[in-house]
Amino acid sequence: MLGAIDYSVIVPAYREASNLRPLVTRIFAALSRIDSPVSAGQVEIIVVDDNSRDGSVEVVQALQQEGYNVRIIVRTTERGLSSAVVRGFQEAQGDNMLCMDADLQHPPEYVPQMLAAMSPTKLFVLGTRYGSGAGAVDEGWPLYRRIISNGARMLALALTSASDPMSGFFGIRKEAFLKAKNLNTSGFKIALELLVKAQIHSNAIAEVPFAFGLRTAGESKLDSKVMRLYLSQLLELYWYSYNGLIAFAFLLFLALIFLVWRYLTASNEPMMATTVQGGGHGRGQ
């Protein structure tokens, strides 16, 4: 019999039916290990699906019948990663809420450690690809991809001390989430949005090094629209955190970055297609 739910794992998904079973079973297998700091009975998984109609509902129903504490929310009138994460946090029963991608690039075996890292003094946990022991984050990546990844991270340095707010593998305590006002749910990097809007102090952030896994099924979501959304989100966050003059100067800088990015991606389109077909990295950048 399930006890009180203290932890909620939120999984935003779109056309990820083939990844849901391995994701859920691997999470609960990790939680059931004798050395897990969190008990499986304390955890729920919430899949927030943007009306994929790809069999995701049936996969979750089968997992429920097998005894896994997982449920799915199908959104028919909303779309977007950030709004899906926010919806999941709003529906969560646990006071400790973790967000991770459905594509298995965020290794499920790290979930117990990520959940246990949250506490009344550690309001935010971040899976970082740049911490000690994380491995080579850009191993095997083409040059343009490494430029995008590191450039995106560097652009956020003035907003947060967190080492990797781009990873998308993060958790937040419910009391901190409820303090965040005027969230931009059309933005792409909801972790960065919450770090700024919930005013998470650097000493309240726990970081867990991890190495990106490979997408095993489905399609990568990295495209030019995603990059435009990220740059727009950065501008709004700088405007929120600083004065208008600084934000305007940053806008000019963003315009230059976007032009460089467009040049790099345009000249590497064949390479990008190969990356997607062979297991490209999804939402993380």
From TrEMBL:
<comment type="subunit">
    <text>Component of the dolichol-phosphate mannose (DPM) synthase complex.</text>
</comment>
<protein>
    <recommendedName>
        <fullName>Dolichol-phosphate mannosyltransferase subunit 1</fullName>
        <ecNumber>2.4.1.83</ecNumber>
    </recommendedName>
</protein>
<dbReference type="GO" id="GO:0004582">
    <property type="term" value="F:dolichyl-phosphate beta-D-mannosyltransferase activity"/>
</dbReference>
<dbReference type="GO" id="GO:0005789">
    <property type="term" value="C:endoplasmic reticulum membrane"/>
</dbReference>
<comment type="function">
    <text>Transfers mannose from GDP-mannose to dolichol monophosphate to form dolichol phosphate mannose (Dol-P-Man) which is the mannosyl donor in pathways leading to N-glycosylation, glycosyl phosphatidylinositol membrane anchoring, and O-mannosylation of proteins.</text>
</comment>
<dbReference type="InterPro" id="IPR001173">
    <property type="entry name" value="Glyco_trans_2-like"/>
</dbReference>
<keyword id="KW-0472">Membrane</keyword>
<feature type="domain" description="Glycosyltransferase 2-like">
    <location>
        <begin position="8"/>
        <end position="177"/>
    </location>
</feature>
<dbReference type="GO" id="GO:0006506">
    <property type="term" value="P:GPI anchor biosynthetic process"/>
</dbReference>
<keyword id="KW-0479">Metal-binding</keyword>
<dbReference type="GO" id="GO:0006488">
    <property type="term" value="P:dolichol-linked oligosaccharide biosynthetic process"/>
</dbReference>
<keyword id="KW-0460">Magnesium</keyword>
<comment type="pathway">
    <text>Protein modification; protein glycosylation.</text>
</comment>
<keyword id="KW-0808">Transferase</keyword>
<feature type="transmembrane region" description="Helical">
    <location>
        <begin position="237"/>
        <end position="261"/>
    </location>
</feature>
<dbReference type="GO" id="GO:0035269">
    <property type="term" value="P:protein O-linked glycosylation via mannose"/>
</dbReference>
<dbReference type="InterPro" id="IPR039528">
    <property type="entry name" value="DPM1-like"/>
</dbReference>
<keyword id="KW-0464">Manganese</keyword>
<keyword id="KW-1133">Transmembrane helix</keyword>
<keyword id="KW-0812">Transmembrane</keyword>
<comment type="similarity">
    <text>Belongs to the glycosyltransferase 2 family.</text>
</comment>
<keyword id="KW-0256">Endoplasmic reticulum</keyword>
<dbReference type="GO" id="GO:0046872">
    <property type="term" value="F:metal ion binding"/>
</dbReference>
<dbReference type="Pfam" id="PF00535">
    <property type="entry name" value="Glycos_transf_2"/>
</dbReference>
<dbReference type="InterPro" id="IPR029044">
    <property type="entry name" value="Nucleotide-diphossugar_trans"/>
</dbReference>
<keyword id="KW-0328">Glycosyltransferase</keyword>
